[in-house]
Structures are given as structure tokens and as C-alpha cells.
Amino acid sequence: MIFQNSIVRGLGALLVLASLQPNTSQATEQLKGPIKLVVPFAAGGSVDALARIVASGLEETSGQRVVVENRPGAEGSIAAQYVVRSAADGKTLLMGTTTQLLWVPLSRKEPPYNPATALKPIGMLGESAFFMYVNASIPVNSVAELVAFAKANPDKLNYAYGNSTGNIAAAQLIQKAQIKMNAVPYNGEAQAITDLLGNRVQVMFATTVSVLEQVKEGRVKALAVVGSARSPLAPSVPTFAESGMSAVDLSPWAAVFVPAATSSDLTDALSSALVKALTTSAVETKLAGVGLTVRPMPAREMVTFVPNELKKWDGIITRAGIVKD
Fold first, then answer.
1. What are φ and ψ of residue 88, in 5° steps?
2. What global pTM score does this model have?
3. Helix/strand/coil (H, E, C) string of 130-188?
4. Contact 227, 251 (CB under 8 A)
5. Count of alpha carbons within 13 Å of 88, Cβ hemisphere only?
6. Transmembrane segments in this chain: where (predicted)?
């Protein structure tokens, strides 16, 4: 489990915040002027929605204008590399997800960057809701029934994914259950949702909470949620572990980063502003609405968190049998 005891973490975050306050006045002066939050996916998606909520909260707590800039492509590595190469002045932030920070460097023979050394964390935002959906026409209502159906109908199910978490979750399920499904990759989740509704793909691993509206309408079924706990957005949907498939053990998260050369004073000031934003009820409520369970983790805690996650995901990718590009 990535996150344990959110209350303790929240209190820890506030203690770190309090300890930072006396030392950030000079850094606050250096941060005057617009701050850019770079999003690795196109506008209109779930990560973009998350970033805009965070940007609004940061504006309130930092006192600076925060502009969202979308730089999609190459599984988010275009945005990540842009931030890596940016000036280390605290003015360019990366809205990071597990795709750019873990999947990209671990799934390629020649990684474009090492997130543990090329980027410096500002703070964790939280854990994302990530579901496995099936078209309503498929006669299954649980993960076990899907596995049985796939075994009885080999290669007749097409599964969609628009990001790395979906890709790995599907690979884990296929390997553990010893089933066959045809992979249909997408550059994002929007077109995949359209194809799921049209039954061109029958299974989809996705973060997009808008699909839950289709679940309510009976057009799609949500069979399980990836992560350590059920999502407040759909509390009746079990986790994969509860469904007897503990091998699907990802916990997708989101965090904010800056170039590695950014000074500790600047990262502390930004971390302080971020923790303040995340601990306001208005921001937390809005983030919950887009499928994020807020779990604040200040910059100094994340220094060890990121390398540990890289090690964990490396093992997951290897066990899932995913071949590096």
C-alpha cells in the first residue's frame, strides 16, 4: 500500500509546513510573477481537470498567478523533458503522474530521463481512482465472471487503455488469470470511451470518472477498482484484491515536480503553498470530484518515495512480462 493512515500523513504534512514557514520569505520574493503548471496530456482529460483545480488552489496560497500549459505526447515524456530542461527558478512545475514518472523511464531501453535525479518533488497530491469497465452487452458482473468468459471465448475480447496504468493493470490481469484479450492502445481515454460505448472494445482500464455516469445509465459496468481501497465515487465497486485478483496491485498517484537544480528554499516554499492548498476543504472536495483522494506528502518525504516507487514498478513491469521498447 502506497499511502497508510492519511490522518497521520496529513498532520505530518502540516508539521512540515509549520517548520518551513520561517525560512521561505526570501524564496517567496523570488517566486513573484506567473508560475507555469505543465500538464503532460491534452486539455479536457482527467489529468488536465486535476491540474486546473491544483492551479487554482496554488494561486490562492502562493499569491501568484498559476497558468496551466498542456504539452501532450509521447506518453507524457514531452512535458516531463520540457520541465527537466527549464530554468530552476520555481516558475515551471510538472503535473506528474505515474505514466511519466515511472512507466516512461522503466519501459524504455534508453530512458529519456531519470525522474529520481532529473526532477525534484514539490509534493504528492493523492491517489487516483482507476477502474476496469466492460461494455454492458458482455454477460459478466464480476472479475471472476470476466475471467471465465475470456477463457471460454479466447481472443474475442478487445481491451482498451489510454495510459501506462491501464496497460500494466491489463497485463497483470491477463498473466495472473491466464486469459487472452486483444490490446487496443489509445493516445488518451476520450476515444477509448467512445469505442467502449460502441462495443468496438469490450473492456477498458481507465481513470476517467465520467464513465461512471455511463455505469449509472446501464451502458457500462464497473467491475473493479485498481488501488488499495474502494473509491468514494463508487463505493460499491470492489478492489481487485477483494475480487480475488491481488496480483493487480498498482496504486496510481499524482504529484508536482520542478527541475532538479531548483533550490531547497524554492521547493520548500512551493511545497508549503501546495500543502496549504490541498488541506483546504474546497480544493479537496473538487479533487474528489475528479477521482483523486487527497493524500498530502511534502517534498522532503517524497525524496525517498520516488526511488522506492521506481523500484516497485520495475518489479511490476518485469513480472507482468512487458518487454521494453
1. -85, 60
2. 0.83
3. EEEEEECCCCCCCHHHHHHHHHHCCCCCEEEECCHHHHHHHHHHHHHHCCCCEEEECCC
4. yes
5. 13
6. none
Tally of CB atoms within 10 A around 293: 21
Return d(Cα 121, Cα 116) in angstroms, integer.
9
Q: In what order do the strands lie in the sheet with 182-185?
A: 182-185, 158-161, 203-206, 130-135, 220-226
Model confidence pLDDT, tens digit, residues 222-236: 999 987 788 888 999
Alpha-carbon distance of 41 to 227, in angstroms, equals 22
Q: Amino acid letter at 123?
A: G
Give the residue ranges of DSSP H helices in 220-298: 264-278, 281-289
Indicate the helix (H) or strand (E) that contains 98.
helix 98-98
Are 283 and 277 in contact by the 8 Å Cβ rule? The answer is: yes
User: How many residues are there in the chain?
Assistant: 325
